């Protein structure tokens, strides 16, 4: 090591980096040494002075801002303040062999969940065989009677899945959550990659990073593969709630990169069970809808009658097989956090295979033994409501006050079906640039992966959204609660090709 | 193309054009008032700005008297005023955002980054003198956005609809400027310095449309009512004249693949009628009562715009 490098290690952006003793740091091992897969990246970053790096970071931020990759934060002013989703330029690396295993596990899980949904809305074998308790399904607010006996094209319900993974202190990946309603975040993966290339092209070239840019084409092909029978050149659209939705950027980005129309509910209407969009040249039939509107708002005739976002009669057209919806309505009961605990059993039941990916040990408060355990050990557990998303309504036992613990005990007792608890998982940490401090510090990360299932096709994006909890010590990575993101580099195994 | 997208593109073009004309008019009038041949002219100028920008009533709902800083702030940047320049820029961006999947990434970035910059600039409020800087940013960036419209978009319905909106609005704005100037002039007709004022008023009219030098090149005479009307209304070679704009409107409507028949009450017919009418009118025909001609022309253009909105770009 030369003198300049030694100096950079103490005064540069990595100066004074404290490896967390009780957690797994993916970049540094305990002694503060860089892990081999990060060596090249680390030495590249050491070359930046604090000023250089601050500039680089500002430059990337401006690029996001001008591209409109923002979400609105509402204030008392007439205009909401727009924020970018914070992005960290130091990427996360996943090795080829590690990824290959993850990919297999993710596909296995998504395929099994699809069979599970299909079974529940048709024969219900799994309930009769008592592998999953029937109550659990029928008490879920996301179970839709309107879906009974509907047969989606090719039997696919969860065309798009976002599987959330974490790396525990034991170095293994665990599934934290399945998202099979309208998982979001893919546009950040794609734009993060563009920003990375703009900012750090030289560094990028030294790694064999798998590309992510084919995702929109894969999504389009997936949509086309499930077009209604007899439709040759399907008209595919993305259905958005509109410009005021926080994920509007993503909806527009996907429509733009797939080259399809971005429609709102008011652009569509249903006549004789066919769906049409209103164009300046008259009506045009719509065949496949990638809908980014929640089930409850899809069709005011079938679900929430107050919805102005949806399309009256859409479910009728769907039932007749004249339009395909991606994802199918009613998948939400299967990514419920209480059903989560049964996923290993579900995989064994439908596929006759052992699950490849680990599940986090979960206690279901509705079971008497588990309920008792949760009440007695709450300070060591994370308690979650089963049907909320976005990190809301969660209690982290080790950080809760006495009053909060007491309050949650009462909440759980009142509605045991609603809560599950898990041991506090030690999300791995990753070196993350902290603005204001002008240096890198360890922060907790998870990984959202994106999977597509179509007729005779399966695809897992090689990469994903590494979400970072920017607040010191925080375990919550959701963007609505102070989360940021990192580019995720899955290293290509060229020898296998 | 979705009717809603068509609507967004049309209005994006209109608001872009409108913000540019209002910015320029406000700047030119305000700056010209500094060396005007008449005493007490500043009040007249402030009144003129409020009239042309349709802000007269709104302004006096919250203010007791004419005051330069208040007028400039209300017209240029007030968030509470939906007819302020900044509000129009917001709407340009909102419409572009609604039609994002139809326009180019470059055009969107130009609109979006300008929106952020100008909002940041305006956050601290404006002194009346700053209208010079503020309005020039609006005018320049309008040309930048139009550059992206012209150089990055396919020549299809998307481009035609933006262009249609821009030129329809341009015809409207030129007429509004002329109407306002006739109103300003009326106040002075009986005054002692009238002769000096006549030249001043027509010169500042031309400057408000960025057309003084082109006017001189064509008409080769000091600006007066006859020649200025002739140039701004009927010169088909000048891209800001009403005749030029209405001709472009007609061409755009012919190119857009609206589904319809070509007969009375339909858009092609009405646009054609309007443009042809203009083509075969000369300044001599209207000189006796120019204000009435301006009024009826404006009504016909509004009727055409309404027809488009209500029949062809309707989506709710």
TrEMBL record, chain B:
Domain of life: Bacteria
Residue span, DUF403 domain: 1-313
InterPro entries attached to this UniProt entry: ATP-dep_Glu-Cys_Ligase-2, DUF403
Protein name as catalogued: Alpha-E domain-containing protein
């Amino acid at each position: 090591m030369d003198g300049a490098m030694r100096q950079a290690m103490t005064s540069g952006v990595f100066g004074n980096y404290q490896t967390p003793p009780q957690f797994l740091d993916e970049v540094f091992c305990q002694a503060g040494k860089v892990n081999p897969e990060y060596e090249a990246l680390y030495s590249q970053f050491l070359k930046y002075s604090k000023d250089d790096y601050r500039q680089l970071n500002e430059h990337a931020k401006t690029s996001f801002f001008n591209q409109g990759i923002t979400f609105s934060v509402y204030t008392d002013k007439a205009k909401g303040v727009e924020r970018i989703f914070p992005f960290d330029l130091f990427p996360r690396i996943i090795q080829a062999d590690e990824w290959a295993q993850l990919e297999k596990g993710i596909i296995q899980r998504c395929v099994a969940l699809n069979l599970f949904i299909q079974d529940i809305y048709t024969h219900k074998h799994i309930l009769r065989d008592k592998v999953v308790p029937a109550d659990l399904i029928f008490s879920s607010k996301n179970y839709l009677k309107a879906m009974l006996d509907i047969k989606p094209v090719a039997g696919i319900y969860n065309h798009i899945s976002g599987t959330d993974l974490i790396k525990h202190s034991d170095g293994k990946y665990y599934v934290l959550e399945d998202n099979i309603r309208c998982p979001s975040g893919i546009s950040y993966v794609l734009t993060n990659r563009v920003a990375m290339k703009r900012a750090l092209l030289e560094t990028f070239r030294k790694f064999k990073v798998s590309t992510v840019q084919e995702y929109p084409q894969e999504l389009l092909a997936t949509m086309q593969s499930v077009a209604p029978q007899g439709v040759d050149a399907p008209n595919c659209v993305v259905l958005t709630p509109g410009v005021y939705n926080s994920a509007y950027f993503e909806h527009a980005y996907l429509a733009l990169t797939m080259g399809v129309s971005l429609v709102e509910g008011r652009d569509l209407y249903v006549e004789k069970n066919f769906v049409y969009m209103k164009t300046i040249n008259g009506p045009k039939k719509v065949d496949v809808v990638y809908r980014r509107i929640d089930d409850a708002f899809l069709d005011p005739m079938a679900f929430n009658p107050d919805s102005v976002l949806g399309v009256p009669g859409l479910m009728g057209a769907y039932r007749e097989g004249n339009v395909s919806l991606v994802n199918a309505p009613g998948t939400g009961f299967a990514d419920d956090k209480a059903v989560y605990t049964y996923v290993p059993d579900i995989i064994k039941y439908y596929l006759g295979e052992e699950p490849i990916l680990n599940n986090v040990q979960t206690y279901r408060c509705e079971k008497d033994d588990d309920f008792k355990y949760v009440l007695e050990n709450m300070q060591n557990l994370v308690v979650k409501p089963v049907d909320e998303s976005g990190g809301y309504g969660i209690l982290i036992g080790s950080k809760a006050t006495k009053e909060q613990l007491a309050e949650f005990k009462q909440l759980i007792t009142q509605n045991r079906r609603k809560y599950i608890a898990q041991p506090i998982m030690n999300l791995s940490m990753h070196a993350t640039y902290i603005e204001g401090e002008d240096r890198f510090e360890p922060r907790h990360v998870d990984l959202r992966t994106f999977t597509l299932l179509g007729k005779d096709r399966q695809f897992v994006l090689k990469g994903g959204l590494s979400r970072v909890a920017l607040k010191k010590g925080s375990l919550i990575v959701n963007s609505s609660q102070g989360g940021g993101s990192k580019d995720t580099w899955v290293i290509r195994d060229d020898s296998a090709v | 193309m979705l009717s809603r997208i068509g609507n967004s593109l049309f209005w994006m073009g209109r608001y872009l054009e409108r913000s540019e004309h209002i910015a320029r008019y406000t700047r030119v009038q305000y700056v010209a008032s500094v060396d005007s041949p008449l005493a007490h002219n500043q009040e007249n100028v402030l009144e003129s700005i409020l009239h042309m920008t349709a802000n007269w009533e709104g302004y006096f709902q919250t203010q007791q008297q004419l005051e330069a800083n208040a007028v400039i702030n209300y017209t240029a940047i007030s968030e509470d005023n939906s007819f302020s320049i900044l509000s129009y820029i917001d709407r340009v961006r909102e419409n572009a955002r609604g039609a994002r999947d139809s326009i180019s990434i470059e055009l969107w970035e130009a609109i979006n980054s300008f929106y952020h910059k100008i909002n940041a600039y305006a956050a601290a409020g404006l002194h009346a003198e700053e209208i010079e800087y503020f309005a020039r940013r609006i005018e320049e960036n309008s040309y930048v956005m139009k550059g992206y419209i012209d150089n990055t978009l396919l020549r299809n319905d998307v481009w035609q609809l933006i262009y249609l909106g821009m030129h329809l609005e341009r015809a409207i704005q030129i007429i509004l400027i002329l109407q306002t100037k006739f109103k300003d002039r009326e106040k002075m007709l009986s005054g002692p310095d009238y002769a000096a004022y006549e030249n001043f008023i027509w010169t500042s009219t031309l400057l408000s449309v960025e057309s003084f030098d082109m006017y001189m090149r064509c008409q080769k005479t000091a600006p007066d009512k006859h020649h200025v009307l002739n140039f701004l209304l009927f010169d088909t070679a000048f891209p800001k004249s009403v005749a030029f704009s209405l001709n472009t409107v007609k061409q755009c409507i012919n190119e857009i693949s609206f589904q319809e028949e070509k007969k009375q009450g339909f858009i092609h017919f009405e646009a054609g009628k309007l443009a042809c009418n203009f083509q075969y009118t000369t300044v001599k025909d209207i000189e006796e009562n120019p204000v009435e001609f301006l009024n009826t022309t404006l009504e016909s253009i509004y009727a055409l715009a309404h027809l488009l909105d209500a029949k062809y770009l309707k989506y709710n």
